[in-house]
Write a structure and sequence with these properties.
This protein is an alpha/beta fold and 164 residues long. It has helices at residues 33-49, 68-78, 98-117, 131-136, 145-161; strands at 24-29, 57-62, 84-92, 120-128, 138-140, 143-144. α1 packs across α5. The protein is globular and about 50 Å long. It binds ligand DLZ.
Length: 164
């Protein structure tokens, strides 16, 4: 694939692969459920739209975004047939330093889980100043990051399955 790309603009036109052969896990945080529910629906519907069989989408709710890392690790440790894990959450800036601790822990944690299992972990966690910004990215004027997370998972699963 890479040898046939002439320039960077070619990347923006890569097609979204059909997902009929893949299995995905979606791990979704219950904290800020009004937002994460919309992210989940966006991710789920996008996978179905691109051919993933409903029985090949495994869904796991967790209490908050901090738990996404452990859950992704547990899920992959117990199911080697999963091609990628989509992690969805929404961390909203509050008055304390929780925001920084949670965001840093989740971003680093998910990266490490992906490397440990040699599988794609999609970082679908909104990190916003307020709920209005989050709603704008969960089906509002900035689209739905859940949809984007699903497309990332499809592209990465396809890449892994088609290495020479
Ligand atoms: C505690 C907490 C706070 C203050 N804020 C958020 C948030 O904005 N988004 C989120 O997903 N989770 C939050 N949590 C919960 C933590 O992620 C975690 O569930 C608890 O600290 C228990 O480990």
């Amino acid at each position: 694939m890479s040898s046939s790309l002439k320039n960077l603009s070619d990347f923006s036109h890569t097609t979204i692969p059909n997902g009929g052969d893949f299995k995905f896990a979606i791990v979704v945080a219950e904290w800020n459920a009004e937002i994460t529910g919309k992210l989940y629906k966006g991710a789920f519907d996008t996978l179905i739209k691109h051919g993933v069989k409903e029985q090949n989408i495994l869904s796991y709710p967790v209490p908050g975004s901090y738990e996404l890392t452990a859950a992704a690790d547990i899920v992959l440790s117990n199911n080697a047939t999963i091609d990628a894990v989509i992690c969805l959450g929404c961390v909203i800036q509050g008055e304390t330093r929780h925001f920084d601790f949670i965001c840093n822990a989740v971003a680093n944690g998910l990266a490490n889980v992906g490397l440990k299992h040699n599988k794609t972990i999609v970082f679908g966690v909104l990190t916003t100043d307020n709920q209005e910004q989050a709603l704008a990215r969960a089906g509002g004027k900035h689209g739905n990051k859940g949809d984007e997370a699903a497309i990332t998972a499809l592209k990465m699963a396809h890449l892994s399955a088609n290495l020479p």
